[in-house]
Amino acid sequence: MSTLPIGNLSVNRLGFGAMRVCGPQVWGPPQDRANALQVLRRAYELGHNFFDTADSYGPEVSETLIAEALHPYPKDLVIGTKGGLVRPSAPRWDPDGRPEHLRRALEGSLTRLRLERIDLYQWHAPDPKVPFADSFGALAALQQAGKIRHLGLSNVSVAQLDEARRIATVVSVQNSYNIVDRASETVLQACERLGIAFLPWYPLGAGSALQWPKVKQVAARISASPAQIALAWLLARSPVVLPIPGTGNLEHLEENAAAAALELSAADRAALD
Ligand SMILES: NC(=O)c1ccc[n+]([C@@H]2O[C@H](COP(=O)([O-])OP(=O)(O)OC[C@H]3O[C@@H](n4cnc5c(N)ncnc54)[C@H](OP(=O)(O)O)[C@@H]3O)[C@@H](O)[C@H]2O)c1
């Protein structure tokens, strides 16, 4: 698998999104805990050495399961977690960018992940109720205190990326992006210009990209699965893209991992672009 830098760390270009190992609606524990643990361990075995998680997945479930499955962590495993969203109930993902909340969120993640420092701490989403610089400034201070190795952003515009970069070094951006939803194209281009990682969430469009006729046609033509086509397209899109497909299913996990070795021909790429 080819690699990509996250700050001074290097990870394989196909990561693993650990949101789907929680219960339905990313709420509560998984229905089959043993299976969830097996998915996490197998994801690492298959070469995914970047895991994406967040305190709000479960909440607290995904991070706890990652530690249970893989701590003490292999040396090359990079865990990127996030803070800044709260879950008063299953359907709600409310921003809370108050510095005191972000400090508490980080401490919770450190405890659950059994770490003294988070390799990549991503601010989950700006909070319109709190000045941007207050929230990101609080995270920069936590980095200076040694609790965060690298800072990333999520759900931001190019202007917000620029504002954050005036406060601290940003090594990654995580926005929704896939073959059927390219609204973050300008953010991806900004990451490419800056040489920082772009982590597309919903790389499979939460399943919708697999139904796209062009994806199905190319999949049928080259005997690959639609998920593999959607991931191979992302990998070919830009060298800074680090897809983080999510699954709680071992078969899907194996299928998605194989996409790292799939190279699309110029004709197939043109058909998908
Ligand atoms: N920053 C943010 O705001 C944000 C928001 C959402 C997600 N994320 C991150 O991004 C990661 C990926 O997003 P996501 O999991 O929501 O969406 P996704 O990766 O686009 O799609 C996951 C969905 O597709 C299914 N799936 C996975 N592999 C498949 C395959 N080979 N064939 C058919 N179906 C398949 C999964 O179901 P099964 O479990 O049945 O395989 C799941 O329902 C998350 O895990 C999380 O880490 C971040």
Shape: globular
Instruction: Let me know the average pLDDT.
Output: 98
Strand content: 15-25%
Q: Helix count?
A: 10
Distance between the termini: 23 Å
CATH class: Alpha Beta
Fold-level CATH name: TIM Barrel
- Count the domains: 1
Number of DSSP strands?
A: 11
- What order do the strands of the largest sheet run in, or round the barrel if closed? 3-4-5-8-9-10-11
**Name of the CATH superfamily:** NADP-dependent oxidoreductase domain
The largest β sheet comes out as: 7 strands, parallel
Structural class: alpha/beta
Radius of gyration: 18 Å
Helix content: 25-40%
Bound compounds: NADP nicotinamide-adenine-dinucleotide phosphate
N-to-C order of helices and strands: EEEHEHEEEHEHEHEHEHHHH
CATH architecture: Alpha-Beta Barrel
How would you describe the overall organization of this protein?
It is a single chain. With 273 residues, this protein is of the alpha/beta class. 39% of the residues lie in helices and 18% in strands. It has helices spanning 33-45, 61-70, 99-113, 132-144, 158-165, 185-194, 213-222, 226-237, 250-257, 266-272, and strands spanning 3-6, 9-12, 16-17, 50-52, 78-83, 85-86, 94-95, 118-123, 148-154, 170-176, 197-201. A 7-stranded parallel β-sheet has the order 3-4-5-8-9-10-11, with helices on one face. A two-stranded antiparallel sheet has the order 1-2. A two-stranded antiparallel ribbon has the order 6-7. Helix 1 crosses helix 2 (61-70) and helix 3 (99-113) packs across helix 4 (132-144). The model has no long low-confidence stretch (mean pLDDT 98). The structure holds NADP nicotinamide-adenine-dinucleotide phosphate. NADP nicotinamide-adenine-dinucleotide phosphate is lined by residues 17-20, 52, 154-155, 174, 201-207, 210, 227, 244-249, 252, 255-256.
